[in-house]
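Lab notebook, design round three. We kept the backbone fixed and only want residue identities now. Task for the bench partner: fill in a sequence for the structure below.
Input structure tokens:
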């Protein structure tokens, strides 16, 4: 009997359009012989099932069901394709865990922790994971440009603490430009993190639970045409994403080892994508994405294909692992 799969997409953050693209790729790729796929749009003002004719049907939030032609449809599993809030920060995970509905992403705690860059770095530091020097600010704090420069140097990166897709991120070259960058980050979040600039090769590596084993995918090298790997570089073709990365075997082994260590230390499930920059021949960890982009052009699917895993198999495995975990 075919399983009913709800593909949740959209979300409450600036990343909602990217999420809709990812969700639609999942919808069109899932094996129709095995699954009944339902596109579910999650927005602040509405949760709806969108049928093949783009008609909207309200979701009952009490049990996450939908009524179609007088019949109540319940879901066997949720495929999470929401980048940012509420799909990547723990809210949807907690909701589905309370309802005892299997879902493809990590648990509520892991999602909340990894979405908070500052808390994540603090958790990983005791395990010897190398990270950039950083300085923290909360909305309303006094901004001491001299102290910031003394701690992280120039240039530096100013980032929203809880945001993705490079929203709320600026590269700052002069102390005088810090306040404008800080205000930009506060548009996305009330907490920010200011990090030293790491000048080196940037790579991205996917790690996932594949057929009950933690599997590290081929590494992708990021070469941005812009000043850094920003929104344009990620989504508008202003970068080269080279898989496998043009790095030495030594660099490759170091990165694979650290990426797997992070996945296991955090007790992750589902799939993730971690970013690193090399400094002094060592990979320095930047961040981890627990709901990475899932379009044909996205990095993790590129890595899966390089590893001999088709998009259909990638998505099928995510559902099978979620059902097994549940």
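Proposed sequence:
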């Amino acid at each position: 009997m075919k399983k009913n799969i709800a593909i949740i997409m959209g979300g409450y953050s600036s990343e909602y359009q990217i999420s809709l693209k990812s969700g639609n790729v999942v919808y069109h790729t899932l094996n129709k012989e095995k699954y009944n796929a339902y596109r579910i749009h999650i927005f602040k003002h509405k949760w709806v099932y969108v049928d093949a004719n783009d008609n909207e049907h309200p979701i009952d939030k009490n049990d996450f069901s939908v009524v179609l032609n007088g019949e109540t449809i319940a879901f066997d599993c949720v495929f999470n394709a929401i980048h940012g809030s509420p799909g990547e920060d723990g809210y949807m995970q907690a909701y589905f865990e309370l309802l005892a509905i299997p879902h493809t992403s990590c648990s509520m705690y892991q999602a909340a922790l990894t979405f908070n860059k500052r808390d994540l770095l603090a958790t990983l530091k005791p395990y010897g994971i190398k990270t950039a020097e950083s300085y923290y600010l909360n909305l309303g704090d006094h901004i001491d440009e001299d102290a910031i420069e003394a701690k992280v140097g120039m240039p530096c990166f100013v980032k929203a603490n809880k945001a993705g897709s490079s929203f709320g991120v600026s590269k700052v070259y002069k102390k005088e430009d810090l306040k404008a960058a800080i205000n930009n980050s506060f548009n996305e979040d009330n907490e920010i993190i200011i990090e030293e600039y790491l000048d080196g090769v940037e790579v991205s590596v996917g790690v996932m639970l594949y057929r009950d084993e933690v599997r590290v995918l081929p590494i992708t090298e990021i070469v941005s045409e812009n000043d850094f790997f920003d929104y344009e570089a990620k989504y508008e073709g202003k970068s080269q994403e080279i898989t496998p990365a043009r790095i030495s075997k030594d660099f490759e082994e170091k990165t694979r080892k650290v990426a797997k260590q992070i996945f296991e230390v955090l007790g992750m499930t589902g799939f993730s994508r971690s970013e690193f920059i090399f400094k002094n021949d060592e990979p320095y960890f930047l961040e981890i994405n627990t709901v990475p982009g899932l379009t044909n052009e996205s990095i993790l699917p590129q890595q899966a294909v390089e590893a001999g895993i088709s998009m259909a198999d990638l998505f099928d495995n995510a559902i099978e692992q979620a059902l097994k975990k549940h």
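Keep this in mind before ordering anything: The chain has three domains: 3-104, 113-128+199-325, 134-196.
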